[in-house]
Amino acid sequence: MIPGSTFHLRYPRKEEIPHLVHLMNLPEARGQFLPRELFLPAVMEKRLMDAQESREHMEFFVIADQADQILGRVFHFKTVPYFQSREIGYSMFTDEVRGKGIMTEAVTLLRDYLFDTTLLNRLEIHMNTENKASERVAVKCGFQLEGTARGAVFDRGRYHDILMYALLRDEWKALRDS
Predict the structure, then answer these.
(1) Mean pLDDT score, 137-145
(2) Where are the beta strands (DSSP E) in the chain?
(3) In which domain, by residue range, is 167 found?
(4) What's the total number of domains in the chain?
């Protein structure tokens, strides 16, 4: 468990995984920027179970409040085999918990955990160019804009551009030491 100020990050429990997949498929949980494509429950349940056995390809945490209710998720995964990096993904499951700084803190906790426990040199966050809330999270966590992947994602009948943010280990150390 990774403690935060009013919540903690923890691995999902086996018995929670079907409920977690249900939450991830709710339209309000997906928001306006995550793709509308739904997760196949059996496939996603297997992926989450596999993630608990090895963090080589993906590591998944739930964001749980002090009563241990699941508020959202944060995870990291290997993008391309030749990069010494991980991409961070995240989402909150309801509007009531959005805009309170929880995700910024959760991403900061995950960022610090990854740089403290791995040899990674680079973390990335990608988001739809219209997703200003996600962009604020990346900036507040010290990530720098590297560019735009034009027409990278197809969703809701059209292609969308994606902003690409990254943070290098030396930049993280400078943030931590300041």
Answers:
(1) 98
(2) 2-3, 7-10, 58-65, 70-77, 85-92, 122-128, 144-155, 158-168
(3) 2-177
(4) 1
